Amino acid sequence: METSEDKYLKARERVKELREFYNHLFSYILVNLFLAGINYYTNQWAYPWFLWVVGGWGIGLAFDALKAFRLNPMFDKRWEERKIQEYMEKEDKQRWE
Questions:
Q1: What is the pTM of this model?
Q2: Separation between Cα atoms, residue 10 and residue 4, nearest integer Å
Q3: Which helix (H) or strand (E) holds 32?
Q4: DSSP code at position 28
Q5: H or E element: which one contains 79?
């Protein structure tokens, strides 16, 4: 049975994950705006090199978003629970053999 303290700790961890994602997103926006400004100032975007940073960092940010908002369709909470049950049953079976 899950106590109210357990629920609080889970909720606190969830809020921490979301806060970290939003901090990452804020940094992403600020740094890339700064780099875009430098890129424009130096060559008026004749070669938009800042897009390499936007794209590379954006991939990492997308994975952070998937994790923070728990949007992974393959390894969701139900999958985790099934695997835990599977390993527990396997362990019990081996113990009795």
A1: 0.74
A2: 10
A3: helix 4-43
A4: H
A5: helix 77-96
